[in-house]
Amino acid sequence: MNFTYENQGTNTYLVYQITGSDKIDTMSLGMITNNKIAGIVPTVFTQLDADKFIKYNVTSRITAKEFLTGIVNKKRLLGVFSGITRAILSAEEYMIDVSNLLIDLDYIYTDVSSCETTLICLPVISKNNENVDFGMMFKKILFSTQFDQTENCDYVAKLINYLNSTPVFSITDFDRLLTETMNDEILQSQTESYVPAQAAVQMNEAVQPQEFSTQETRMSQQSAMQPQSMQPQPIQPQPMPQQPMQHNVLPQPVKPQMSAQAGTQGSGQISVPPAQGDPNEKEMSLFGLLTHYSKENKEIYNRQKAQKKAAKENPVDSNINMPNQEFAIPGQAPQSMSKSVPSQQNQQFMPKPAPSQQMPKASQMSVQSNPTQPKPVFPKSAPVANPSVPQNILQQMPVTGNFGETTVLGAAVAAGETTVLGAAQAQIVSPYLLRLKNNERIQLSKPVFRIGKERSYVDYFISDNTAVSRSHANILIKGTEFYIVDTNSTNHTYVNGNMLQSNVETKLEHGSKVRLANEEFEFFMY
Predict the structure, then answer these.
(1) Longest pairwise C-alpha distance within the chain
(2) 3-state SS class at 55
(3) Domain ranges in the chain?
(4) What confidence tens digit (pLDDT) does each residue in 163-221 have?
(5) Separation of alpha carbons 87 and 30, rounded Å
(6) Superfamily of domain 3-191
(7) Cβ contacts of residue 517 below 8 Å, gap of 6+?
(8) pTM beyond 0.85, yes or no
(9) What's 390's DSSP letter?
(10) 38 secondary structure, DSSP code
């Protein structure tokens, strides 16, 4: 069809130029130009010399095809369907041929805020849509739409069942079904709004026990005024049998076994000088001292505290021998672990290997037992890290094996080595808009990125500028190329100072200046 868009001031018009071969339905043309008909786009007829034009005001409206793109909720779908049925019924009321209505989603226009939908009436006989099956058209829309799964989608099945079960489609019955479905949604929203009132009633019911407690208080006050013989005696609880209080409430620590002789080796045994005082004396804790305070208990507590402090300050004299804490070289006694352990007892002591490292067999190791100059021979592998091994012994262990050298990025390397990636590498494309008002970076993450002030519809919501339309413009991403489209905005869209024609794709380059009404942006690819 020979349609173009024209911007006049703040209005956007869809323009059809009448050709010499077109036969005009004058009655329908007079009806749509002289009346404001519900469901039909306002129309203007103009003539300039021999050229005749029919103009449709589609300001701040987008096509239903674009409106139903992506995830569609119940309000959007019912808004489009109701607009189509209302336009058909209005055409019959104004004696307009229904075949003059363009039943095409590319020429059905919707307000993104109110979801109000209007149709184009083209009073040209040669362009008529003959034998339009409205029932099939609605089913195609239902089957090609992606619905919002977060809400109840029973209405979709209800509409499909009606379209499949009706042998002859009736626009009146279908409009009644749409009205009932929309009323159900309104009733549901009203029912949800009453939930706080119900909660308030439940809260009032929950307050009733407080009133009962007040009555009990009054009764207790009245009973206080009665003689003592008249008052009910409270039931005294029976006392529990008292148990003798233990002096040591805190759990007793498990003491290690004590050996009489210093230097005696044993697994986990600790040799400590005998404690002063009575050996059968119980340990006095701070809690026991406070609960049973006396001069004798205080002396016991101070003596035990001094003994513990002395044991901590002299850990070497206690000759502590813990397992897996020494690492001895064959033929040489450890120098820094213990003073009283003879070297002959550790000549055959070897460190316990880690689970992941297997020690070689005795036949694979050559050990020299010369005490004057020990020369241990280790297998050709890296030693197992052990925190108990002295640093000087680790330095004497030979480490074999070559793991390769690290290549410095940017330096000259030999053939076969990994080279540095060149600086002339292709730039990673990450398109975004920079809002100059607040230096906000807006990432363009969708093939069709919508910008406007209708929060429920656009991808970037502009709330602080009333000059921006509800659906002002779209950014289109096609491979590595980027385009901007003005969606019939009121104050238009500009690129590098040039106003764009509505619904026409304009290519964006890196650094392009974009202006939506009086809101300025800058486009960058990376």
Answers:
(1) 129
(2) strand
(3) 3-191, 432-524
(4) 999 888 999 999 999 999 988 766 665 555 554 545 444 444 444 444 444 455 455 55
(5) 17
(6) Transferase(Phosphotransferase) domain 1 (1.10.510.10)
(7) 465, 467, 468, 469, 472, 489, 490, 491, 492
(8) no
(9) -
(10) T
